[in-house]
Amino acid sequence: MNKIEHIGIAVKNLEEANKTYKAILGVASYKTEKVESEGVDTSFFKVGDSKIELLAATNPESPIAKFLEKRGEGVHHLAFNVEDIQSEIERLKGEGFVLLNDFPKPGADNKLVAFMHPKSANGVLVEICQEKVAE
């Protein structure tokens, strides 16, 4: 793991949350993106080397909608950048962690992603991500 890539925050209303975080951080969102496979709209903010990803559900069956229903708005996940996501998946499984993905899948912000079950990481949903390589 190289660094914290971003912190994901689940929100009910992306437009309102964008206004809030623009005021908090003093910068506008640099990118919004829909991730159809996850049923989520995302918005990214960058301050220095740190990134915040806001996540809003696009349908009531999405993981974010279920999270919001159960826990309300707030920190959803902590993402770490890795050089070789498949090797990192195998390493973490070898350490005994439960991963929600055996193989990386496309995520937002030009990333391949995989998630570790929160029960494996003291209640924190951990995401590992790797920049997609241009083909």
UniProtKB/TrEMBL annotation:
EC number(s) stated in the UniProt entry for this protein: 5.1.99.1
Keyword annotations: Isomerase, Metal-binding
Gene Ontology biological process terms in this record: L-methylmalonyl-CoA metabolic process
Residues of the VOC domain: 3-131
Molecular function terms from GO: metal ion binding; methylmalonyl-CoA epimerase activity
Presence of the UniProt keyword Coiled coil in the record: no
InterPro entries named in the record: Glyas_Bleomycin-R_OHBP_Dase, MeMalonyl-CoA_epimerase, MMCE/EMCE_epimerase, VOC_core
Top-rank EC class of the record's enzyme: isomerase
Similarity comment: Belongs to the methylmalonyl-CoA epimerase family.
Classification via PANTHER family: METHYLMALONYL-COA EPIMERASE (PTHR43048), METHYLMALONYL-COA EPIMERASE, MITOCHONDRIAL (PTHR43048:SF3)
Name by which UniProt lists this protein: Methylmalonyl-CoA epimerase
Lineage: Bacteria, Pseudomonadati, Bacteroidota, Flavobacteriia, Flavobacteriales
Gene: mce
